[in-house]
Protein 1
Amino acid sequence: MAAGRDNLGGRSDAAAPAAIELRGISKAFGPVQANRNIDLCVPKGTIHGIIGENGAGKSTLMSILYGFYKPDAGEILVDGRPITIADSQTAIRAGIGMVFQHFKLVQNFTVLENIILGAEEGAMLRPSLSKARGVLKQLAAEYQLNVDPDATIESLSVGHQQRVEILKALYRQAEILILDEPTGVLTPAEADHLFRILEGLRDEGKTIILITHKLREIIEITDNVSVMRRGEMVASVRTRDTSPEELAELMVGRKVLLNVDKQPARPRAPVLEVRDLRMVDDEGVERLRGVSFDIRAGEILGLAGVSGNGQTQLLEILGGYPKKGARVGGEVRMNGRPLPLSGSKCNAGQRRRDGIGHIPEDRQVEGLIMDFAAWENVAFGWQDAPEFNKGWLMDNTAIRADAAEKMERFDVRPRDPNLAARNFSGGNQQKIVVAREIERNPDLLLIGQPTRGVDIGAIEFIHKRIVELRDAGKAILLVSVELDEILSLSDRVAVMFDGCIMGERLPDQTTTGELGLLMAGVTDADAPATAGIPPEDQHPEERA
Ligand SMILES: Nc1ncnc2c1ncn2[C@@H]1O[C@H](COP(=O)(O)OP(=O)(O)OP(=O)(O)O)[C@@H](O)[C@H]1O
């Protein structure tokens, strides 16, 4: 850290009283020391960023603050008073609110019902609802947190669901709001709106703790930032006195390349050809409405778009597991051969044999078996491979050795192949999936949100591996909500909206603003709706 800078760690800033002060907090899970003697001071009325590598101990620290874990040692002070936070109810009573990465909302309840849920002990529903309606109206006006109180959660966009989580905390009179990677699922416009809300809350004197892997957000919105590394708090600095490069180095302990270093693509023959792909789900909703594109060997096609516009269904179909009850039409060719889009031959195992690797969007549901050990997960889907079998039996020694090697190469921490997937931090879980899929050297790699929740050191590494795969002549479909990631990695960018491809751009000839408009469905009159397809191959209607 640069000399002469205030170190905010540990003790309160003389200018503002501390809303939260942690002194000497430690927490171990068996042999893993998740938090070691942590000091942290968060001045009242500030936005405080917490950053750190995957597994650095950020979530553990926040879970201690919210009463999910009991620390092994240390002291917590809220507004200068020592407090024991035994459970989340105690945290809420102390004025602490938490907005989790995975929202805790009841999907088929309304906004109002969700807001009062658990907050109105023993109260009758009707008075609670009418009180909540009044409070909600007030909060909405005060902080621009508009949501329809009578809408069910499932009908709301992710950004609006997040607003409900914030409203829930404010309804419980939270003075300190902790947000764990809040922008991971938001569009750039929604993220901007969230930041304005957070600034509004700060201006009202509330205190915000923001966990994020995005240094741009730290620089844009926080007043102070604390950096964790391997369970320790290594620095706390004023944001205006630091830079993304310095923060990256503090986090990882070495210099990090923040931009992707790659040569122009040299695309060859098409590997994947998708024509007029259509999909209607089991509820009759049209999810894909005539999607067409090509990906050639040696290129990365980035697919930008707000979550929920058909990207998930596209990846599922290409990966060989369309949702049950879905009706799929159109044509997909891989290396010139048609791929079955339904029936028994449409399955993930067959797709792997066809040369398709897949890093799914939801690592916990589709990428890993959470109760299985890391070594089992590294072989997941490849257990029949000859190198993992000895006669009739699986060769567990070979599988373990392979897992240990991949975990070493991808720097999965802790380097324990026997640990269950659920006990790795989110970013390390992602590294396990990425290692398994990339190391198989597939002809086509489907990637959904490759770096969601992954720290910058690991992002640098994963991006490098993706580019290497491209340079080795493989085709890559990259689906990401991160426009920066799409723009820096892709050779071509297509934008998806409402089950259609709205247009295609070259990354160096577009801007996040232009892509943002396409993502919002603003019609792109100049761009063909058929990304990368020569006119003679286009559907007659599209040609017209
Ligand atoms: N319940 C648990 N049992 C065993 N180990 C755990 C448990 N929870 C966390 N850990 C370990 O504690 C360490 C810190 O994890 P934590 O989730 O706090 O990290 P993080 O900084 O939030 O990471 P990420 O950025 O990847 O979310 C990791 O090594 C993790 O594997």
Protein 2
Amino acid sequence: MAVDIEAAKRAAAQEAVKNHFPDNPRFVGIGSGTTIVYVVQAIKELGKDLSRIGFVPTGYQSKQLVINAGLLPIEFDALPDGDMIDIAFDGADEVDEELNCIKGGGACLYQEKLVAMRSREFVCVADYRKLQSRLLTKWPTIPIEVEPKAARQVMSRLRVLGSKSPAGKGPFLREGAILKAGPIKTDQDFFIVDAPFPQPLLTSDDLERGAVANPLAGSWEVEELAREIKNINGVLAVGIFCGPTGPEAKAAAVIGGQRPVACYFGMEDGSVMSRQAPQKRHSIVETYPLLEPKISKEH
Ligand SMILES: O=C[C@H](O)[C@H](O)[C@H](O)COP(=O)(O)O
């Protein structure tokens, strides 16, 4: 029987929105890609008055989606200082057992990370193909947004970090398939480098069970790899969303997190499976500083 991927995305989106859309949000983050379209539909189908909510897009496509749905877009840099986004929804390219994600398959990731990390709650929605126990299981590369002038040196540094596919291919610039000759440009006018690494990436749980990450031998733990790539001069954003989330983010003196608190997957049999983020010991990759407590406002 042919599996209807679109139905799987739609079902996951409906469940995620039903369970997480807050009663009276002021700001809602809207991610990018094909699955987020169903999230916006599901939000509309709630039948609530959405006219006073600002929807924060994560790029051009996302903004058009918000506008075409008749919702009110508010750019990230127009958010009042110190205000948080109440919730952000987004898609993912691959999700592991700890809800670390690979994102950027559609060349959006920098603004997605900005929005996720400014949100009290970040929820991912995907279909069953994205559900894996470890990252780099099916999805072949880590997307990385880089400043064009630095692209060659970033790729050279990635090779030093062991970026290589099983067939021996190293990091490469993502090219426009048909409509554009040369590298594609992101919403920031940057390039995307796709960097394969030995598969799969270890989780913090693997380390606690005694596995040893040995980058020199080509085995990386998720957060360690994300941090090393982020440290390369010229890298704007790494398509690994990991680190503290939920209560553990608060404990680490950050609000928001790049790792979702929950992920919803539309399954092959039509059901929806949800995973909640486990608490884990972690090193902090990138954080959003804890804000001064604010006097609550009327929405
Ligand atoms: O660059 C694109 C974004 O990170 C997307 O959220 C991600 O690629 C998932 O996209 P889709 O919902 O189309 O699978």
